[in-house]
Structures are given as structure tokens and as C-alpha cells.
Amino acid sequence: MSRFDKNSRYQEVKERVAASLSRFFHRFCDLTSAIFKKNGVKKDEVNEK
Prior knowledge:
It contains 2 helices and no strands. The chain has helices at 2-39, 43-46. It is mainly α.
């Protein structure tokens, strides 16, 4: 039972970290795409996902 509590706590922390990571990642992507646009690289090449 304590193991399950630990797992749920870990899940909560993991989700919070994932949320902040994705926020940072999106900001980073916007920054890099802006830099690439400045350098003349097509945005389609960057946002292939």
C-alpha cells in the first residue's frame, strides 16, 4: 500500500516535471524556429513532427 502511495506521488511529480519540460520545449522550439527563419531555413524542415 505504501508502495502504491509512493507510485502515485512519483506520477504526480513526473507529470509536473513533464508539464514544465513541455512548456520549456515549446518556448525553445519557438526560439529556434525564429532563428532558423532569420537564417533562411524553411520552418517545415524544423516542424517535421
